[in-house]
Design a protein that fits this description.
The protein is mainly alpha-helical and 69 residues long. It has 3 helices and no strands.
C-alpha cells in the first residue's frame, strides 16, 4: 500500500485480544481509525451473489457477519 501509513503484520495472538474502544492507547486508536479508512477506500472482494450491496471492502465484513448470525 502506498498511502504513507506504516502497516504492521497481524498475527493470531493479536487477533485473540479484544479491547474496548475506551481502553485503547492513542496509538492503537489511530491505527484502528487508519485501518477502517483503508477498508472504506478499497473495493469489495466479495462476489455480487455473496454481498450484492457491498461496495467498499469494509462492507465485506458487515455482509459476512450478517450471514454468520
Amino acid at each position: 500500500m502506498t498511502d504513507g501509513i506504516t502497516h504492521t503484520s497481524l498475527t493470531k495472538v493479536k487477533l485473540a485480544v479484544r479491547k474496548e474502544s475506551g481502553n485503547l492507547t492513542t496509538t492503537e486508536r489511530v491505527e484502528y481509525i487508519n485501518t477502517v479508512l483503508c477498508l472504506q477506500s478499497n473495493p469489495s472482494k466479495l462476489s455480487y451473489s455473496v454481498a450484492s450491496a457491498a461496495e467498499p471492502r469494509y462492507d465485506d465484513f458487515v455482509a459476512i457477519d450478517n450471514k454468520q448470525t
